Amino acid sequence: MSWEDKVRKVEPYVAGEQPKDRDVIKLNTNECPYPPAPGVIRAAEALKEHYGNLRLYPDMDATKLVNALADYYKVDPYQIFVGVGSDDVIAMCFMTFFQSGKKILFPDITYSFYDVWAELYGIPYEQPALKEDFSIDVRDYLPERTGGDLGGIIFPNPNAPTGVEMPIDQVERIIEANPDCVVIVDEAYVDFGGTSALPLLEKYDNLLVVQTFSKSRAMAGQRVGFAIGNKKIIDYLKDVKFSFNSYTMNLPAIELGTEAVTDAAYFHEITGKIIKTRECFKQDLRDLGFTFPDSKTNFVFAKPPKMSAKDLFMALRERKIFVRYFNKPRINEYLRITIGTDEQMAKVVAAMKEILG
Amino acid sequence: MSWEDKVRKVEPYVAGEQPKDRDVIKLNTNECPYPPAPGVIRAAEALKEHYGNLRLYPDMDATKLVNALADYYKVDPYQIFVGVGSDDVIAMCFMTFFQSGKKILFPDITYSFYDVWAELYGIPYEQPALKEDFSIDVRDYLPERTGGDLGGIIFPNPNAPTGVEMPIDQVERIIEANPDCVVIVDEAYVDFGGTSALPLLEKYDNLLVVQTFSKSRAMAGQRVGFAIGNKKIIDYLKDVKFSFNSYTMNLPAIELGTEAVTDAAYFHEITGKIIKTRECFKQDLRDLGFTFPDSKTNFVFAKPPKMSAKDLFMALRERKIFVRYFNKPRINEYLRITIGTDEQMAKVVAAMKEILG
Fold first, then answer.
1. How distant is the Cα of A129 from the closest Cα of chain B, in angstroms?
2. CB pairs under 8 A between A and B
3. Domain B55-262 adopts which CATH fold?
4. How far is CA A31 from CA A35, A293, A312, A356, in A?
5. Which DSSP state fits B71?
6. Tens of pLDDT along A25-74?
7. Architecture of the domain whose range is A3-36+265-356
8. pLDDT band, very low/low/confident/very high, at B23 (cuts 50, 70, 90)
9. Does the interface predicted TM-score (ipTM) exceed 0.90?
10. CATH number belonging to domain A53-262
11. Which residues contact B314 (CB under 8 A, 6 or more apart)?
């Protein structure tokens, strides 16, 4: 037997392309077109004052960042868990909550990291199909249909890559109907007009809400994500995290991350601008003959007229416009287009007009 | 059944205390007493120029940092894996290489995170006892005694918290005798006078060497660790890492980390100073009647005369000198004392003289 026979062999998640060429219109990974809050640049400038502290381990509880989040979301600090992006947070959640050996559920069309995590940990899973309109059929997550006793449930709300939001009363039905497993609502895109499940924490202790700084807080490069839940669920998550890596949040992530969350005015300004741009872009898409489910996110998932999604993807790419194409059943006729600035979207629309003739 | 019955319940690793009071002599977590390389402060200052890029995902391959490490260690970039401190790297290694269901081996007295990871992942393990002089008995890791077909082997060299180095020919015997499993040599402390196993990579493809920026590179606050191995072993590790979190290294970690590794002169200056201080401190300890195994690290693991280690630990703490005490069998009569500056060690020695009378 060779050492290779003993290795865990997995098919890793494939993230959206990150072109080295900065001269492209990059609308393929749902980043924010605006810079982080101005406080972040001041924190970056002030980082040199912390230079001497870089030799020391960072605050393993990331207290400053956690307190800022607690203030913003009006919860107690012990209700918050922070990680290296929401991917780190969710990876820890799978390890903590989805390990009973019972099957977990998530939609067939959703964030494509969920099945990668399930495979990594050997967690059995089922993926109920979205309805034809790309909405989640809430009944697929209720005991009447599942038989109950699930290993866990996770879904993004709004969903990705569709952009479709599940009404909050349906989210609540799922949480309420499954008190015997943890339900994770992945709210990566909630800040672009969606309704958060956070108020439901008062009623349900099996709910965990996950959010990220990578989209609405324009901090993908800093890697900060977080979960909010009741104390008990957060404590379980912390125990696993502290059995994995005591110090995940480095000093710059704590310092710059804190500034990214305290400036509510800036946050509302940029998310408001993105929503406005999105609504204009939707109209442009309609005028061009695209069809798409309504989006409550910073992207639109749209099916082009006249030509295949793949061909349009390639044609846009030739014009240095990067969008996301998924070569997967049911969604391979759609493109996921991140909302950039008004100027960027005007260029996209102009390019589409040209390509589609 | 409640959701809590489905949770992974673990006993997390307990890191050394991080006092909020900065007015202490902090010799309890093996941090470097000197600041990072001067290039790091320049990189921190230059971070504001990257402010606009923080909205974008960082380079998921951390190419700049990886290339700097490859240059420094004279290996190919594809031989390098980087993570959020060496804890993150080793956590990934356990998940990748130690999952065959066969037992892994590490010493009974060693880095106390190893058994936490093994418990987290449900990996069977055995911990051969160190000899009375705290050296590893190489025969405990050879097929004559183990029966062969192990799930894996990991040990720090030099070992922690003892500081004892295993001669490199014995390290080689272990690697050579176990071609059917991965052998991880955790070289967190190798830069303080130890001999690295890196040259053995030319002969053995089952070897993985792990190092960290937290000690000799004075960057604990930045969270950077790395592994070096042959391409095949690194590729397996990357597959698991990219199934866990695509973007672990944030922009500041890449920028500041690169500067921490390129300045060889500064690196040799500070590690040389620490070695010199350590040798003086050893003589002071001998004069005071301490006994200790010889250390090749940035700490000394010493047994006090006249009083118990715990009492001395408490007495030093009252004087705002923090060292590390492990309340564990076989080592509860020792203190692990990090090597600080000459001035700090003089204060420690003076305090000890006073306490021991």
1. 23
2. 289
3. Aspartate Aminotransferase; domain 2 (3.40.640)
4. 10, 20, 21, 26
5. H
6. 999 999 999 999 999 999 998 888 888 899 999 999 999 999 999 999 99
7. Alpha-Beta Complex (3.90)
8. confident
9. yes
10. 3.40.640.10
11. none
